[in-house]
Each structure stands twice: as structure tokens, then as C-alpha cells.
Amino acid sequence: MSRRPESERSDWTDLDLLTRDEARGRLLAEIAETEVRLAGLGTADEAERELLLSRLRALREAAEDLTDHSEGS
Asked: What would the pLDDT profile of 38-61 be if each residue is shown by its tens digit?
């Protein structure tokens, strides 16, 4: 929390507000990076592979939640 008096604080100071499209774009970029990392793993990296697959599923689910499904309906 800021130590400045409330009257001197901006409403935007402590917030990083994204639109749904911006958030989805960032998720898609992270998905692409994770897919590259996953593709570069060797067969001995099974534990890391499982972690990346789990992360990839979560990222895809989050991106899907931000998709506007009303456009195609």
C-alpha cells in the first residue's frame, strides 16, 4: 500500500489493467513459448515435461475463458 495520502494517489498507480483481448494475447504468447520449451525437451526430462504439459493445459484453459464466444454464434 502506498504511504502517500489518498488525495495524492492515482487510481491507476497500483493497477495493471488489461482488456480481455490484451490478456488473451499475453496468454497466447506464453502458450507459444511453452510449446517451444516443450518441443526442446529431451526424453530424460520427463518431470519437466509433465510440469510444462500441466502449465500448457492451464494456459489454454485461461485463454479459452477469455475468448468471446458470442462472435461466432
From this structure: 999 987 889 999 999 999 999 999
